[in-house]
Amino acid sequence: MNSSAPAPAPTKTGDFIRDIINDDLEAKRHDKVLTRFPPEPNGFLHIGHAKSICLNFGLALEYKEKLSDSNARCHLRFDDTDPTKEDTIFEDGIQEDVKWLGFNWDGLYHASDYFGKMYEYAEHLIEAGKAYVCSLTDAEIKEYRGNVTTPGKNSPHRERSVEENLDLFRRMRKGEFKDGEHVVRAKIDMANPNMKMRDPLLYRIRHTAHHMTGNEWCIYPMYDYAHPISDAIEGITHSICTLEFENNRELYDWAIDNLMEYAKFPSRPRQYEFARLNLNYTVMSKRRLQELVEGKHVSGWDDPRLPTIAGLRRRGYTPESIRAFCTTVGVAKANSTVDMAQLEFCIRDDLNQKAPRVLAVLKPLKMVIENYPDNDVEELDASYWPHDVPKEGSRKVPFCKEIFIEQDDFMLEPPKDFYRLGPGKEVRLRYSYCVTCTDVVKDADGNVTEIRCTYDPETLGQNPVGRKVKGTIHWVSARHAVDAEVRLYERLLSEEAPPTGKDSEFLNAINPEALQVVKGCKIERSLKESKPGERFQFERQGFFVVDSKDSKPDALVFNRIVTLKDSYARAQKK
Ligand code: ATP
Ligand code: MG
């Protein structure tokens, strides 16, 4: 993994969350800003999580500057309340991703750290007549709940005595009952217009070992109960989540309000919701990502086609570009879909200043320069950077009689506006001479297998006298080139918005050209020693990275991070 520079405090972008925090500080409702990022360790993080990470960790960094180091903090807390889906492998992956994005947590916690407290608080709620043990089946509970237009019905167990409830709850904990036999529910209001308030579940039985607590528990708290308590115990002040939790906020407040006095929490956290990030041409829910991985539609969670942080990292994205993307997306309350082009813009913008420019031929066509001396080799000076990038540095590229150019840079019958090579046409070779095509060699099927040219020795570093040469093409010396495999990545889906719904229909929208493997590419000599994770611009082709998994010193593999804008291809499409 590339080490990444730590994230700087975000430059202040006024948004409603920052307005709320500033108001709270001004009104002295809080003298601290404590946030948390609460992933469930049941999968890998994706670019949507990055938005939440940049917001929560970014706020802490920003307010550390205004308050103090200890009065502005962001916790990483694993929301590990469902032992059937969670695993340490995911925790490791999540930590790696958060660090790679450039953030450090001011404390690592687990919801399971508080299972003991949560249990104690549930007994308190039972004793206060605010929770009860319900023995309806899942299906019955659902039926009794009613729906948006119909109020629910009270459970027949709602009026159990405190003694009976306590006894049943304690026996649930001891493991006397099977999964699903009983649950603990909050006693709120079965007719509440907010469905979340219709006696929501607080605890359920799961005879499953937990990756942190082992076999200590066979009852596990529900997210809606565990989350406010975890926040309150840690002293979180602003609990920021995505909009789909809007209806859960009333329950969040119910839990805090009913436990505040008993538990003496260090803060009174409040939940605020912002719009989740949606991106077109990809999928972002963990369930769908998992389906792609488990169905072997991709090579793993870090497949460069995926919008996972691990996938983007392997694809060659930089943490800076992802943070810049999150900043441009901003924080708002209205759901929207962001165009993938915006993410691509951010990586281009970053790499433009960072990735040295080199020459690589992906689909080679041999060129023989007939009037060039057979055994001569000229070492030509080639700058890594264009004039508008304030960086210095160059290398030598060897030039000799036989070189490779890109098949696409030659056409037997070129249209008028094709400023590259064709019979009789002249073109400049990047950093080198101008050459004119004098002849072609074809195979039995009529395919061009080699082109013959002459070069003009007067044109090194200067224009030919009396004629205009419009095009410049890239090339590599045939004798010095290194072979490489290049993986050309495109967007994961060929449709902007995949079919929604619970089925697997979105699989039909997978772009069959999202990965094209090109073998036998010819890259310039200077790339021979390049290391996994190193990024380059292949001139006229795009930005590329040495693959971190499959590339070997004697069998280099490059991933295309993103294309450059190709004006010719665009014009052609039009
Ligand atoms: P998914 O819905 O993609 O399966 P999740 O919400 O189940 O993800 P969690 O691990 O629960 O994943 O999420 C951790 C945090 O990241 C939550 O606070 C959640 O609101 C936030 N988050 C998840 N997806 C997005 C997104 N697309 N945009 C912004 N924040 C997100
Ligand atoms: Mg979730």
Rg over C-alpha atoms, rounded to the nearest angstrom: 31 Å
Strand order of the largest sheet: 12-25-26-27-23-24-13
If helices are DSSP runs of H or I spanning 4 or more residues, what is the number of helices?
13
How helical, in percent, are the residues?
Answer: 25-40%
Which ligands occur here?
A: adenosine-5'-triphosphate, magnesium ion
Principal-axes shape call: elongated
Report low-confidence residues grouped into runs of 5 or more: none
| Straight-line N-to-C gap | 41 Å
List the keywords.
Glutamyl-tRNA Synthetase, domain 3; Ribosomal Protein L25, Chain P; seven-stranded mixed sheet; elongated; 574 residues; alpha/beta; 27 strands; binds adenosine-5'-triphosphate; 13 helices; binds magnesium ion
Describe the structure.
- It is a single chain.
- By secondary structure, the protein is an alpha/beta fold.
- Among the domains are: 115-222, Glutamyl-tRNA Synthetase, Domain 3 (Glutamyl-tRNA Synthetase, domain 3), CATH 3.90.800.10; 280-316 and 484-574, Ribosomal Protein L25, Chain P (Beta Barrel); 357-477, Ribosomal Protein L25, Chain P.
- 27% of the residues lie in helices and 24% in strands.
- It contains 13 helices and 27 strands.
- The strands form 7 sheets. The chain has a 7-stranded mixed sheet with strand order 12-25-26-27-23-24-13, covered by helices on one side. A 7-stranded mixed sheet has the order 21-18-19-20-14-17-22, with no helix packed on it.
- Helix 7 (223-234) crosses helix 8 and helix 11 crosses helix 12.
- Adenosine-5'-triphosphate is lined by residues 38-40, 48-49, 51-52, 241-242, 276-277, 284-286.
